[in-house]
Write a structure and sequence with these properties.
alpha/beta, globular, 248 residues, 42% helix
Length: 248
Amino acid sequence: MARRRIIAGNWKMNMTPTEAKALVETLKPLVNNPDVDVVYCVPAIDIVPVVEAVKGTNVEVGAENFYIEDKGAFTGEISAPMLLDAGVKYVIIGHSERREYFGETDEFLNKKVLKAFASGLTPILCCGESLELRERNAYKEWIGLQIKADLEGVTADQVKSMVIAYEPIWAIGTGKTATADQAQEVCALIRNTIAEMYDTDTAEAVRIQYGGSMNAGNAAELLSKPDIDGGLIGGAALKPDFGQIVNA
């Protein structure tokens, strides 16, 4: 099965609305590739201006976070209906920074995945291991447990439509990158886990990104691997280099 490539930028807590619009204008000609799904996952305050700025382009907009309730007394949160009304298609769920800094558990992330599907948002579900888990060779079991917990109650058809991002925590923002073979090994493990949970067709359909310091220099090698269908890009998504990754 030929899976369509997907390159998503995770802007994190960067870019004012003014800066965001300027970045979109800079990137427009650089990411214009009809063969690749391009997504900007932006801070909540940037969503409306970025949705407006990408109109008429091949770029979709994603959110970096959302809450599981549609409305109510949840000060500071943003809901799925708000995102949808603003023009958002994708939402990142379970990024290591949300897990580590904000205490989001697999049980809570499973609720987010289910809520995203129920609302019509496409999840980009993140999983990955710390350096300590990698060094004691416990990463395979850890990632398998994350996937199984986060996808509890999710149907095969839903899994086929979602995106899973493998992000070795030790390679995020550190300048370190998993080798292409290391990244391929884990992305294949994720696909095999999906096959065990569901079936081969579902495993072959789900798109799996690599999310650990992919950049213009290493993107082509990483994307040449059979189980790596794209990238979840951090710092490089804020630079013209993002266009080179989209076209890698």
